[in-house]
Structure formats: structure tokens, C-alpha cells
Amino acid sequence: MRVMLGMTLAVVMGVSAGEAGIPTVEINGGEYTNVNDVHISDNGKIFVSAANGMTVISADKLPADFLKSWNINVASAVAAERQKTEAALKNAKQEAEETLEYAIAAGSFRKVGGTVFDIRNPESGWVTYYNVKVIQVLDDGALVDLTPDEDTYLTIHVRHIPDTLADTDIFSFTAKPIGNYSYENKEGDERTVHDYDVGTVCSRDEIPDSVLSGQKPFDVIVQSGTPTVDVLAKLPESEELQGNGSGFFITGNGYLITNFHVVKGANKVKVKNSSGIYPAEIVKIDPEDDLALLKVSGQFKPLPISKGNAQLGEAVFTIGFPDIILQGIQPKYTDGKISSLAGIRDDPKDYQISVPVQPGNSGGPLVDMNGNVVGIVEAKLDFAAALDVSGDLPQNVNYAIKSKYLDDFLEQCPEVKLGSALSAATNTVVSSAQQSVAIVLVY
Questions:
Q1: Where do runs of H (alpha helix) occur along 315-395?
Q2: Cα gap 246→324, rounded to integer Å
Q3: How many other CB atoms are found less than 10 A from the CB of residue 165?
């Protein structure tokens, strides 16, 4: 039907070759000479054929007298082009709706906890494993061997596997890492492995509009009849927010430390703590040691920085703001030990720590039981990289920059006046540290 419309317009609203019409016209800075054919094409635009070339262009880009000389009605041409455009948009919308319905039916929208994910989007953080083997089906999922062709087991736990799977079956899956899973093996020994969730397949009415429309790769949904708070909406300029990390005050007048990689590429930075939200200035950076010094206006409770080295096996903790979209903006406490006095490949800059950390913990303080900062939380060992190199998955292997490197960094900033380190533990160490931490918001 659209072809017939174009063909009719071309005959009625044009002049055939050999009939009079202005023979020369300038289009987009180029001159077309000895024009021999001008008519409305089947897409509603104007077709111009000349001795030195041809083009298709909107009627409003051509002189009115030129069009009139070739018997082209501008209003009709514009209407035809609009009709064609509307038809194309309608077709595109229909195709998008059909693609969306197919994705819903194919299980591309999955619910993990209180969040719906569009797993077609690579930013959702899901991983895919192929041809793995079910070791044992459990009530809450299954123990799975990632390397069934090898002599040793590389075991993980997977939740919400298909009901049709049984022990020894081979299958592939896409799932989200959600933490660790502990169980007791047949010998009575307790084991802890990584935990994954395939999620439950969502029907259309379970998927938030923001995810259906493609505005977000995931979003929180209503649980048990109670709306879940949209954390990002509570933050300033949430639509422009590019990322977040953790930080901590080191002086009472507003100097704050975080990682360089947290603020790298930032156009603007703000800092949020329990007393409010403050614009922040990036005062100094050290990309090599991954440190950044920020400054906000106001009075704050600082954390003292240790002048000495932590000891192997020493108890430490951090307070930070991991994964704020899912976990919220309240500070999160985790603790552990100094696992090694060196980082990846014996990097002397870092401690290896058993303190559990997640994206968003970066830049937070690593604090000893006296309340002194002994390090800055920096990174965790990447699951995929470790699996590729060693054939095994890391178990809670994380890293923090030693406070010595922070001290060296701050020596280059004479305007920063630090307090003295504490020498005795108190029962208020955690609550004191909590008052000194803040979310670093990057725009």
C-alpha cells in the first residue's frame, strides 16, 4: 500500500523528463545542472535527477520556485514525508514491542531478592557458565562443579536452578553472584563456596516500567505489598550520578580521603554523611597509589591515621557504603583480619585482608581495634581473572592500601593538619569510626 501511494504521487505531482522546469538548482552547497526529472519519491522526499548527479532531499531544503516549476506542491510533499515517517515509527515501535515480548517469554527478566534485572544488559553484573555438572541437588538450589572434565572439583552453589535438573546433569546458566554459601559435606566437614542466583523468571506485570523501557538495567520492585524506597531518587541530581564510593575525614575542617579510581573522570563530586550533603573539591590525586584528597566546608569528626604497620593476623574492620542501589545508604560494617602484609604478586603497597568488601566500599577506612586507620580499602580479587589464571575462584581475597602510603601522600599537602593516633582500644571504636565515614557521589 505504501508503494502504491508513492507511485501515485510521483505521477500526479511531478513533471516527466523533457517537460519545462528550472534546469539548475543548488542543494547542500552543490549545483545540479541540466535537471531532467523531479518528483516525490516513495518515502515522501523529493527526487532530483540531473546531468551531473542525483539526490533525494526534503522539500523544505529546495527553493519554492524550483519546486513550483516542476509542478511539486510543497504542502503535499511535506504531508507525504510525514506520513512515511509516521509509518516507519509505527513499524519500529511494533518491532520493539515484539522484541520485548520475546525477551519476557525467553526469561530475560529475572528477579533476585527484591530487584528485577534485564540480563540482556551486560552492566547488570551477571555471569554465564557453560556445560557445568550438578554435584547434588539441594532444597535451596544445587552444588555445581564448574570443571566437570577435570579431576578436581571447582564447586559453587547455584540457587533457582530448573526443577528438571538432577544429580550429574550437565547444564549452562546465567546467574548473579550473591555472596558465599556454607554447607556440610558427606564427611561432616563444613565448606564455604561462592553463591550464585539464577533468579526467578518475571512476568510482565512484575517488571518495573524503568526496566521495561530500557531506562535502567535493573530496579527495585514492590515486596510484600510495601513499596521499596528508590535510593537513588533520594540523592541530589540522581539522574546525573555516575558512580559512588566511600571516604573518611582525616581533619576536623573537612579534608577527606578516598580512592583515585572513585573520582577519576568526575565532572563534579559531592560528599554525603549523617549530617548532610556537601559539594567537594578534588585537592590532590595520586593515580599510582590510587589516592585522592577531597575538601568540603564544615566541621567533621576525623579518623586518626596509624604511623606504624599492621601485623599479620591483626583484627581490622571497615565501614563503608557498598552497592547503595540494592543495600541502601546506611553505613555497613564488616570485619576480618590482615591476611598478608603484601598485595597481588607481593605488591608491598597493599595489605591482603579477609574483610568482606563489595563495589562501593572503595575508599573506605581500614581501621584497627584502637580506632586508627591502617589502610584504605581499594579492591577485591576479580573472580573471572582469578579463574582464568589459576582455574579456581578466590575466597574473600581483598586489598587495602597501607597507611604508610597515605602518610607519604599527605606530606605533600602542608595545609592538612592531622591529629595524633590513638594508643588504647575503647568500646566506642566502631561508633567513632561511623561518624567519620561518608559516601562519595561522583557526577
A1: 324-327, 383-390
A2: 11
A3: 16
- Taking only the tens place, the pLDDT of each residue in 206-265 is 898 888 888 778 777 655 444 455 666 677 887 788 889 999 999 999 999 999 999 998
Q: How far apart are CA 319 and CA 128, in angstroms?
A: 31
C-alpha cell recorded at residue 240: 546525573
Side-chain-facing half-sphere of 76: CA atoms under 13 Å: 17
Average pLDDT over residues 2-6: 33
Of residues 44, 197, 188, the one with CA closest to residue 115 = 197
Check: CB of residue 377 under 8 Å from CB of residue 361.
yes
- Comparing CA positions, the residue from 391, 305, 381, 392 lying closest to residue 350 is 381
d(CA 377, CA 246): 9
101: exposed, middle or buried (C-beta count within 10 Å: 0-12, 13-18, 19+)? exposed
Place of cell 542501589: 325
Superfamily of domain 279-442: Trypsin-like serine proteases (2.40.10.10)
Maximum average pLDDT range among 8-12, 238-242, 328-332, 417-421: 328-332
Quick one: how many helices (H) and strands (E) in the chain? Answer: 9, 26
Q: Among residues of the chain, what percentage have pLDDT more than 70?
A: 86
- Tell me the CATH class for 115-201: mainly beta
Residue range(s) occupied by CATH 2.40.50.110 in the chain: 115-201
pLDDT (tens digit, 9 = 90+) per residue, 425-443?
A: 555 788 889 999 999 999 9
CATH 2.40.10.10 domain position(s) in the chain:
279-442
**Which among 71, 75, 80, 41 is positioned nearest to 60, based on CA atoms?**
75
For residue 406, give the H/E element and its range.
helix 403-410
